[in-house]
Every structure is written in C-alpha cells, then in structure tokens.
C-alpha cells in the first residue's frame, strides 16, 4: 500500500535480500502483519528470516474491510481479515522469542477513553493472537 510513495522494500523477500546483502548482526527485519499479510510467500520468507537470524520484531493488528484510512484505521486482532494466529505460529516456528508488539494506529480507537481501549487490546490479544 505504500509502494507508490513511501517504500522501496515492499515484500519480506526484498527485506530478506537486503539483510543478507548487508550481512551485519545489527540489521534485521520486523515482521509486521499489517504490511505483509497478503504475501503468498510469507511463511517461507518468515522461515528464511529466522534461519538467517534476521527476525528482530513481530508487530500485530488487523486489516479492516473496508479500510477507511491506509495508516490510521488498523483493527484490533480479530476484527479484520488477517490470520494473526497462523502468522504468529510461523514466526514462533522460525525461532522468534521476542516481544509481540501490538500496533493499533486508529483514529477511531484514539477517540475513546484510553483505559477502555487498553482493555479491548488485552482482550483481542488474548483471544485472537
């Protein structure tokens, strides 16, 4: 979705290629479901990332359908079409043991009382991730 104006790296395969070419322990990849869920090579590229010790982060949320804003309409896990549990199983099988970062950029949720929003995040995380 950002290929036109914001990014020259649009697939996990491209990120893996770059991390391998740089070949530094300081360079790795964040697997962000919001930007990668659609990739039909996602599982194999996550495994490749893990094999090369380039899997540095895992970010989760959901893709709302319809999406009202490309950046700030991310859903809570379970609200949209991303199979977060399946992707998480691939990330864990690839050896990732770090923190799972929940990234809910959402004009809708930012308008609500934030303690209630945090409770919604916790419930969605425990139920749908």
CATH-derived architecture: Alpha-Beta Barrel
Q: What would you call the shape?
A: globular
Give the strand line-up of the largest sheet: 1-2-5
- Helical stretch count? 6
Q: What name does CATH use for the topology?
A: TIM Barrel
Q: What is the terminal separation in angstroms?
A: 23 Å
Weakly predicted, low-confidence segments: none
What share of the residues does DSSP label as strand, in percent?
A: 5-15%
User: Can you identify the CATH superfamily?
Assistant: Divalent-metal-dependent TIM barrel enzymes
CATH class categorisation: Alpha Beta
Oligomer: single chain
**Helix percentage range:** 40-55%
Q: What is the mean predicted local confidence, pLDDT?
A: 95
Radius of gyration: 15 Å
* Secondary-structure-derived class: alpha/beta
Largest sheet: 3 strands, parallel
Number of domains: 1
Order of helices and strands: HEHHEEEHEHH
> Strand tally, please?
5
Please give a structural write-up.
- Helices cover 42% and strands 13% of the residues.
- Helix 3 (42-51) packs parallel to helix 4.
- The chain has 129 residues and is of the alpha/beta class.
- The strands form 2 sheets. A 3-stranded parallel sheet has the order 1-2-5.
- It has a single domain (12-128), classed as Divalent-metal-dependent TIM barrel enzymes (TIM Barrel).
- The relative contact order is 0.16.
- The mean pLDDT is 95.
- It contains 6 helices and 5 strands, in the order H-E-H-H-E-E-E-H-E-H-H.
- The chain has helices at residues 12-22, 33-36, 42-51, 84-93, 107-110, 114-128; strands at residues 29-32, 55-60, 62-63, 74-75, 100-102.
């Amino acid at each position: 979705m950002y290929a036109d104006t914001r990014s020259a790296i649009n697939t996990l395969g491209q990120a893996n290629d770059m991390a391998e070419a740089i070949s530094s322990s300081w360079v790795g990849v964040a697997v962000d479901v919001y930007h990668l869920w659609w990739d039909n090579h996602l599982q194999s590229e996550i495994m490749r990332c893990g094999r090369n010790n380039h899997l540095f982060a895992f970010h989760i949320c959901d893709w709302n359908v319809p999406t009202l804003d490309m950046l700030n309409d991310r859903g809570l896990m379970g609200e949209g079409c991303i199979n977060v549990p399946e992707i998480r199983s691939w990330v864990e099988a690839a050896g990732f043991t770090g923190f799972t970062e929940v990234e809910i950029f959402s004009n809708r949720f930012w308008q609500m009382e934030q303690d209630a929003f945090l409770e919604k995040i916790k419930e969605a995380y425990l139920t749908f991730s």
